[in-house]
Amino acid sequence: MDKFPAASAMQWSIDLDRGLRSRHRATRLHALDAVAPRLRDLGASPAVPAAVASAFGVLPAEPRLFAQTMLLRLATEFRSADNVVRARIVRSLLIEYRELATKGRAYDGALARPRVAEPDQVLRRVKAVYDAGCPQARALALRMFGCLAHLAVDSVHVRSLLLSSLSSSSAAEAKAALFAAGCFCRLSEDFSCVTLEALQRLISLPGSEAEVVKAAIKTLPKLVCTLAVIHRVHEVGKQMILGRLKDIFKADMLMSLSILASKSVILFDNQVELLLLFMRHESSLKTTSLKCLFFMLHGKPYHFPVLRTVFGTLLQLIDSDNFPLDCKSYAFRVLQKIFCGKAPSVHCINTSELPKFVLAVESSLHSSSWETQGIGLKVLAGTLCFLHQTKPHQNIIRLEGSSFTYSACQGMTNSLLSTHVESVEDKFVHKIVTSMVNHSISLVNKVVSTGNNEEARRHIYMPSELKKYRSMLSSMLKLVVCYPSAAAVSLDKLRCLIKELAQIDDSGYSEASVSNVESFQTNSALEVLDTSNEIVKPVAASMKASSHMGTHFDKLKLDSTESSSKKEVSIVHNIILWTLKFANACHNMLCKTSGAICNLHDSIKELIECVQQNACQYCSTYESFHLIMCACISLNACKIQDGNQESGDSTEQPDILFTPSVWITQELCAIRVTKMLFSKQRYWDAYRSAMYCCREGLWFTASFVFRKLADAFGSGSFSFWFKSLLFFSAGEIEMKLLLFPSVIIKLVGQLKTDDDLHEKFYCVETDFDSTLGGSSKLHGSQTKIADIRSRIFLAIDSLTSNTSSGHELFFQRWFINLRASFLEILADFLGILNAHCCAQKESQHEEIGDHSSVAREHNNSHSLALANCSLGLSDLAQSYDLLAVSHGDMDHQSFSSIARLAFMCSLLSFCIAFSVDFSKFPSSVEPCRLPEKFSHASVIQDLHERVDRTDSQIVSQLQQLVHIACNDVPSLQFVTRMDCSGFLEKDSYFLCKFALANLLRIRGDIKGIATGEDTVSSLHGGMRFLSSILPRFMELPFVVPKYFFRVRPCFGAELDIYDSNPANRAGISVPSGFQLSLTLCLQWKCVLERTSIDISKLYCILAASSTSCLDVVGTRSKEFEIDKTAGMVRLNRKLQQYMKDDLRKSSDKEEEEERDLVTAFARFEPSDSGLGFSSCLLNVSAFPQGWYKIKWHACCVDKGGAYYSLLPLNDGAAFSIRKSEL
Questions:
Q1: Tens-digit pLDDT profile for residues 1107-1124
Q2: For residue 10, pLDDT beyond 50
Q3: Can you tell me whether residue 461 is helix, strand or coil?
Q4: How far is CA 574 from CA 172, 339, 478, in A?
Q5: For residues 221 and 256, is the Cβ–Cβ distance under 8 A?
Q6: Residues 1179, 1102: contact at Cβ < 8 Å?
Q7: E-strand spans in 1032-1133?
Q8: What cellular component terms from Gene Ontology apply here (predicted)?
Q9: CA-CA distances (angstroms) from residue 650 to 93, 656, 1000, 1004, 1025?
Q10: Contact of 732 with 1037, CB cutoff 8 Å
């Protein structure tokens, strides 16, 4: 474990003193810069227990003592230094001031009054500067007092000094006094009242300087010690602005009062009415009032009746011809917040007013202001999306005189666009989308025309213009989610844009511009619109992040030839790529909407043809590859959907998308495009395409790309990464070819074929169903699978050999290891099926009855083996769960991908466990002892927690088998649950339904068999069921999560364990027959830096086994080894049970403790320093003498109830049981 702040306090104090004594000015300034974060760490660090302090050789009060010493040393330097050094000291302490400003009276950092024994010593040194210094020095001293407000707030002398300085003739000194007074007012109610009177006099005084008055007005929002003070300040400020306050100060006063009102719900209505008053009557303050209103609505879930007044007032002002254009822009921003913010308030508004609002927004589209047009379109789109989601059955709009002509239709429906008749609602949306695309095209015109100047020729990148274009695309994506037919309209319009842009790109910033569109000008929002829709967020974010996919391997200089010949990228190039990304994002969204993807296929197809015909250079990009694969998926989805409609509902097999024919079609498409990428030496795009193939299960193409990259960059520093991916992908394609061995001829043939680069890559007309036939039987393939498993381990070896620490590439090694574990279980399972098949044939051949002793022995062994396979798969599902929750920075798509793997393992475990009704074999199975950990109830409970709870059919079917206990801690979800909106997830869920229906049918047949001589036949039926379900299970592609290609340090914790008895300095030991008292120090790493997890609870489990006695005391390892994961799963399960008991304040004794394992649990208080202390008792009283190892695991729960595991980044401590002296 790294040294925590308390153990470093003395050294930090020495470093500060040594640095300040240096003759070199730079050294002194560097020491001052270093002291700020150290003081913050000392203030945030919790109190150190005596056992931990003793282990580090420090006293419990030592950190506070040295923090005070450092503060006193800073005050001494402030007194003797020049103004430059004084300013640096103040800047260093401003870091703590921000903490003080946030927490107010609750502040408990290094500058808190209880932490400093003699605050007067510090204050005297600062006051000496004020008494003897120049105006600049006095200003610095006053700001220093502000930073030390927690120490000086009760000092009468300092208070008097601040109040007297408010009337100083020096503007700098007066502003510094205002800053300090604001700091004091956060802590003291009585001082706030006195300061308020002083500020009122200062603002009203005719001779006050303007900058001082503005600073005084901006100090008012800092008087927030209590609600009573806030209300009093707001009342005084309102009186001043309605009184004789000069006009030049009214804007600042309005903003200050708005900031105050945002801190009190009671003041919200009052302040809004004040703003509306100025909007109606003060023309010079209309813009300021709108800005203040926009600020007050920012992120606040206010639902007040006053918003109806705001809505009506803004409508009237927008319709007014005298309303300035810039004010209209801000008015639309406010309306956008009301309708489309994080906490929309539309239900407070009378729906009869909505038609007026839509007409007003539409009128803004004809404005001469580009910004007003852009905002109006976004407001209109966001409003329609929000109303679609929240009020789907309300008749909301009847527009007469609207150019969009949206007559009344009954509500916003969630149904998709009819394939035959276009609804009135869709026509309305299509016209809005058309306007948005035309607006975007006009923006492109502006970008291109701006790019014609000399600066653009010197390769000046224009991120702000691209951001505006991307922002409009994001708004269009919101419409696509609610109205899938809008995607086709968008892509059809953008296809015309690409044609024009391709000509501009070829001509090299020519004078040409995009034509045949309405002239819309724009200056859209400065930020990409956030959306309340949970689906849009990740996709919109993925558009921004897609160019950084695999960011931690972006140092691979794969495209060296490109970068050397073209060091810059044109604006047009970026716009075209963003358009292709938009098309991909549309496809990804509509994949989650049933049936919608078919409506998009033709548009994607035409867009691809447009790129190939007009901008063929963009065919050799990852975006084009992705788009081609999207077209392939949508084409196959349409075929599957049409086939299902013709055949009707089938109970014989599940309706899935990823059929073998679809798989080989996608492989052939991917091979064609990646071959073209290599011919163009687009190595980086080829690598990204291979990552896509891994995420979609296209392992032949992935292995082809990784082999080419390994050959091309075999001597580079990342060659081990390519080799590892090659081993992994080669093993996976071997697994696929076990099912379809004849496919290899077609794939290799495609690899050797020289295709035309302008071929329609997405179009594969051949029907492969007849060629593939049924999947090959896997019986007898256990040897081949074992060989594949051993080769997959080569991928782990390649990663391990190139890591300097066990923490590096751990996710990748763990994921591959879990895959190898599944293959091991699969080989055993196939061995059981093969042995049963052979035994059945042998019994038939030798005419041995099913109920002979030999047959009974076979049945017993098979039943035991099946139970072990089911148990292994259940453990593997929990391992996938632990893998997912152990990486808190994982994206949603990767989390769902891993959750699907866990679901599939749980499903197969369920099928194996319930394929045979053991209750029908009392005579034959009784001698067969099933594993102690095996339980039908636990298997079905695990699957039940993973399925969709809204699917009442599958839940009731599961309950027909075994009674399922409800989760009595609904706030926590310990097992992962996949998002069933994706194609592969849907297929997995359909397979579950198919397997469950067949299993219930088989068990129904078994019930008709009387217990006796014919009951063993049910085992044969169960085996036949497993033989039929396994190929369907294996036909679904195995995919890699996107997170696999992100290489980051482990997300986990380190635990230091100390003997609570400080006298045991030699190590942790306890006499025989006594419990072990331990003090724990937990440090969670990479949690605060890389994630937004707001931890509310921290738990830890410690375990020791009496059977694992150590011969000698080994050194503690800080390596996180892959073979520890099995033990982590077991400890994590026990820790989850403890958390359940802790949350429901009861103890569940149903789970029996293991005889040789003792456990102890501890809770930690979360802290900003990432450090926590606790204690526990480990009951080792029954352990014999010797040395033992403590294993541990930790987890945390955030305030939203999400569960995260913290990987143990170091080993537990060793302890000894010595002979009792009694």
A1: 876 654 444 444 456 667
A2: yes
A3: coil
A4: 48, 32, 22
A5: yes
A6: no
A7: 1052-1059, 1068-1071, 1076-1085, 1095-1105, 1109-1110
A8: cytoplasm; integrator complex
A9: 72, 11, 17, 20, 18
A10: no
| Residue 806 to residue 911: CA distance in whole angstroms | 37
* 3-class SS of residue 1105: strand
Return the structure tokens found at 390: 């929240």
pLDDT at residue 565 in the model: 39
In this structure, what token pair is assigned to residue 278? 């100025």
CA–CA dist 1133, 125 (Å, integer): 58
Enter the tokens of residue 955. Answer: 């839940």
Name every residue whose Cβ is closer than 8 Å to that of residue 697 and which is 6 or more positions away in sequence.
Answer: 658, 663, 732, 984, 1037, 1038, 1039
| Chain position carrying tokens 């007026």 | 356
Structural contact between residues 230 and 197, judged by C-beta atoms closer than 8 angstroms: no
DSSP state of 323: S
Give the Cα-Cα-Cα angle 205, 211, 213 (nearest 5 degrees). 30
Residue 1121 CA, distance from chain mean position: 26
What is the amino acid identity at position 487?
A
Beta strand pairing status for 1157-1164 and 1095-1105? antiparallel
The tens digit of pLDDT for each residue in 15-70 reads 999 999 998 999 999 999 998 888 888 887 777 887 787 777 778 778 888 888 99
Decide: helix, strand or coil at residue 180: helix
pLDDT band of 172, cuts 50, 70, 90: very high
Rounded distance between C-alpha atoms, residue 138 and residue 172, angstroms: 9
DSSP 1154: P
Q: Render pLDDT for 893-918 as a digit per residue (tens, 0 to 9).
A: 899 999 999 999 999 999 998 887 65
pLDDT at 416 over 50: no
Question: What's the pTM?
Answer: 0.83
In the prediction, which pLDDT does 964 show?
Answer: 62
Apex CA 630: angle with CA 628 and CA 632, to 5°? 70
- Per DSSP, the chain holds a count of helices (H) and strands (E) of 46, 11
Q: Could you tell me which of 830, 828, 802 has the C-alpha nearest to residue 719?
A: 802
Is 453 a residue whose pLDDT tops 50? Answer: no
CA distances from 764 to 749, 761, 890 (A): 15, 8, 35
Please state, in angstroms and as integers, the Cα–Cα distance from residue 481 to each residue in 534, 537, 585, 633, following that order.
10, 11, 11, 19
Span 826-844, average pLDDT: 79
CB 1132 within 8 Å of CB 1062: no
Average pLDDT over residues 648-659: 57
Residues 404 and 432: beta-carbon distance below 8 Å: yes
Query: Which residues make beta-bridge pairs with 1157?
Result: 1105
Query: Tokens 């026990």 belong to which residue?
Result: 1134
What whole-number distance in Å separates Cα of residue 25 and Cα of residue 21?
A: 10
DSSP 875-927: HHHHHHHHHHHT-TT--HHHHHHHHHHHHHHHHHHHHHHHSS-GGG-HHHHTT
Q: What is the pLDDT of residues 60-117, one digit of tens each?
A: 778 888 888 999 999 999 999 899 999 999 998 888 777 777 777 777 777 888 888 8
- The dihedral through the CA atoms of 143, 148, 154, 155 has a sign that is negative
Q: What are the strands of the beta sheet with 1157-1164, ordered from one edge?
A: 1157-1164, 1095-1105, 1191-1198, 1203-1208, 1052-1059, 1076-1085, 1171-1178
- Count the Cβ atoms, other than its own, within 10 Å of residue 579: 24
The better pLDDT of the pair 371, 1061 is held by: 1061
Q: Are strands 1052-1059 and 1203-1208 parallel, antiparallel or unpaired?
A: parallel
What is the rounded distance in angstroms from the CA atom of residue 515 to the CA atom of residue 668?
A: 38
**Residue 1169 · residue 41 · CB < 8 Å:** yes
Residue 787 has pLDDT above 50, yes or no: yes
Element at 1018 (helix H, strand E): helix 1017-1035
For 308-322, what is the mean pLDDT?
78
Look at the block and give the residue holding tokens 């005719």. 206
CA–CA distance, 385 with 388 (Å, rounded to integer): 5
**284 Cβ contact partners less than 8 Å away, ≥ 6 residues apart:** 247
